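Q: Sequence in, structure out?
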Amino acid sequence: ELQKNPKYLVDFIEPLFFQNKHVSRVKMIAQKDYEDVQTKLEEKLTEEKVSKLSKREKLDILDLEMELEEEQLATPNVECLPTLSVSDIPAEKQSFVPSQVGENMHWLKTSGSGLTYLRAMIQLDGLSKRETELLPLYETLLTRIGRGEYDYRQIGVAQNLISGGFSVKTGILTDRNDVNVATPTIDFYTYGLDEKLDEIVPIFKTLLDADGPDFNAERIKTVLNEAYSNANGGIVGVGHQYSMAFSHSNVTAYGSLNETLSGLTAIKTMKTAVETNDFDSLSNEIKQLHAKIR
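A: Exactly. Output:
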């Protein structure tokens, strides 16, 4: 039917809803003395309850009222609250050396909370312009596709059972002494309970392994279509931020790279990938990019 008439659904629904003359109207009128009625009901209920109390019970209630009033009028004791003074802050910055795993990943256990935080950062030197433009797509895909022995559904469940979620984000390294220096990075992050560390590390490493991510063309298509729809719908709300990022892209190397990774250029790259619909070629490009990143 849709092939014969593209407006079939519109023509079908319109007489049932928009042109339907069967209408029910409901008019709600507020009761003018509603509050007065409620007050009288409360007074009546209170009188009924009080009338059932013995003299001893009434005296007990009076004692409780006096204790409550005394407590409410008393000056609050703030000594039991946690406080922080200038003397509690160390004059020198404290450093904590994390346990290293391989070349790119490290973890650090926090004292008291029972949580271990895992981070990995890879500096991406020598990427071509095209490879740099693909980084936002790579970032979007990596935690939403299958990895290792898991498909994309299984890896999501496995991650949620042992951690607070995995995240992948592009970053930028700069030189404060030279505005013309800006290098892209890819940052990996997760955290979980100390006792789950032995389970987290193997799954975390699948982000970095050569044969870890499964860059399946159909899955890439699904993820990018969803991501592009969400990104495109949010442009209006943050349009001024995109405008500022685009303007800054002509000033410094950081601004230029930031626009490529998270500005309108990144959305344009995603849009082109979705509209071109050649996800097999895109899959091969991202596989080659992953080989460089790890």
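The chain is about 50% helix and 15% strand.
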